[in-house]
Write a structure and sequence with these properties.
alpha/beta, 14 strands, globular
Length: 481
């Protein structure tokens, strides 16, 4: 498998894992097939199987380049090529190219390509759906990763969009023939499987209501209705009353954190031998697993939780006979229907919306273009459930005043211990809705609080607080419009 790990969360969030990418690329394949186009995958088999970088942004860039390539190609083929080379110890230069045999770009139009919503060659493109190439978002995402988009194009013959980006090397073992595996997945329709459980007894512990809501929703498709606790004390009470197969225990909680809670549970002999305790953490870094094992946990899971990672943990730790893999849309007695879980975002303005789907897409565009939210990442954290994402956005706005007041109080009283816990929660919820800039700034404040670096906190918090309030105000106006 080929993993590109998120810099913010070192866990196997992959954009080229066969199951996930087969589902994503299948939509591109179907679009190409309908137009009589060939979709070609060229992936270098010597690429290291695990790389460290920003998987969400890289995947966004690739999928948007492919979407545009298919859209503006009437005959021939679209080719995705992924290769690279080792540059230095533990560093790899990843090279990605999307080539098409489409209409190409006039030399005089090249500069317009990177302007938001610019219409190129109006006469030639009059029959093509959409209002522009939308390359602005691609260039912005690449800039955030220290890269840039390169374009070679010959009018009426085609274009080649490419970028290079340095990644860390986690595992040097070659990826192998990934292209063949992906092609087989695509040819099979990119069937998506999900893990269905039988009588799984699960307890989820988190002091953040939003996190509990998300986990509850994600576990629905696994046939799980988890018990919930919002504190260490409540966890102890629940485990004294009931035996669980797995307890997902949040690390960062006020008063009694996850490590302290686990210690007390074991002192009270409330952790049966067959019970697995998995740490929930938004601070996964290299060596995190060893750290949690030393603290008595059996494993850890990164937040925001990814569906794939959650199901891997459930399969690994639930007793034999309590899990089985099913194809999404197959009958499980719940009436669950097959659904599209990997929608390609079209970054184009919508003049009017005639139905719910149009309204949903219009909101997503506003969130991305007006607020810069990473809506694709946010939807993935919500298991692709748009209604849940809307609900989480509402919670984020409605709880903002209380969060800010608590942080202000801790800041004014120099209570850096509680400040760290609260800014940690704000960091997690900001990432969940796709507010990556706020997430990164909250992370810096959390790290400063952990170091008891008062000077850095005093310097950075006022600006963060002002930006947070500005973002919340704009978000409220959009979702209430």
């Amino acid at each position: 498998m080929f993993y590109v790990l998120s810099e913010a969360s070192v866990s196997p969030n992959s954009w080229l894992k066969t199951r996930e990418c087969g589902s994503a690329f299948s939509s591109i394949f179907e679009r190409a097939k309908k137009k009589g186009l060939e979709f070609v995958l060229n992936v270098d088999s010597t690429i290291p199987c695990e790389l460290f970088g920003d998987d969400v942004r890289i995947r966004q860039v690739i999928m948007n380049l492919l979407t545009n390539a298919v859209k503006y190609t009437e005959k021939g083929k679209v080719t995705l090529t992924i290769s690279g080379e080792v540059r230095e110890e533990e560093k790899y230069l990843l090279k990605v190219s999307v080539r098409d045999t489409g209409i190409g770009i006039r030399k005089e139009d090249m500069e317009k390509l990177f302007e938001s919503f610019a219409r190129l060659d109006e006469t030639r493109n009059r029959n093509i759906e959409g209002t522009g190439l939308g390359m602005s978002i691609v260039t912005k995402l690449l800039a955030l990763m220290g890269s840039e988009l390169k374009v070679e194009s010959e009018y009426e013959k085609g274009s080649d969009f490419s970028f290079e980006i340095v990644q860390g090397i986690v595992n040097k073992e070659p990826i192998g023939d990934l292209a063949e595996r992906l092609e087989k997945s695509i040819e099979s329709g990119g069937e998506e499987k999900y893990l269905f459980t039988h009588d799984a007894k699960i307890l989820v512990v988190d002091d953040n209501d939003t996190n509990l809501k998300v986990v509850r929703s994600l576990m629905k498709r696994n046939g799980i209705i988890p018990d919930e606790a919002s504190s260490g004390a409540e966890t102890i009470e629940k485990m004294a009353e009931k035996r669980y197969d797995i307890v997902f225990l949040d690390h960062m909680m006020p008063k009694m954190d996850g490590v302290e809670t686990l210690k007390k549970l074991k002192e009270k002999d409330l952790v049966p031998k067959e019970c697995v305790i998995i740490a929930l953490t938004a601070n996964a870094v290299s060596g995190a697993r060893d750290k949690y094992l030393e603290s008595g946990f059996d494993d850890y899971l990164s937040k925001p939780i990814e569906v794939v990672e959650l199901e891997q943990k459930l399969e690994e730790w639930l007793p034999v006979g309590k899990t089985e893999w099913k194809i999404l849309g197959s009958s499980d007695g719940s009436g669950q229907e097959k659904k599209e879980t990997d929608t390609i975002m079209e970054f184009e303005p919508v003049e009017k919306a005639d139905n719910k789907e149009d309204l949903d897409n219009k909101l997503l565009r506003k969130l991305r273009w007006s607020l810069g939210l990473d809506t694709e990442a946010a939807l993935s954290f919500c298991g692709g459930e748009y209604d849940l994402y809307r609900e989480i956005l509402g919670d984020y706005v409605n709880n903002s005043e209380a969060r800010k007041e608590e942080l202000d109080e801790y800041y004014e009283n120099a209570n850096w211990q509680d400040f760290e816990v609260k800014i940690h929660a704000m960091k997690s919820s900001s990432k969940t809705i796709g507010a990556m800039e706020l997430f990164e700034k909250a992370l810096s404040l959390e790290e400063a609080a952990e170091r008891k670096d008062e000077a850095s906190i005093r310097s950075a918090y006022p600006e963060f607080a002002a930006e947070y309030l500005k973002k919340v105000k704009a978000l409220r106006e959009i979702i209430e419009a």
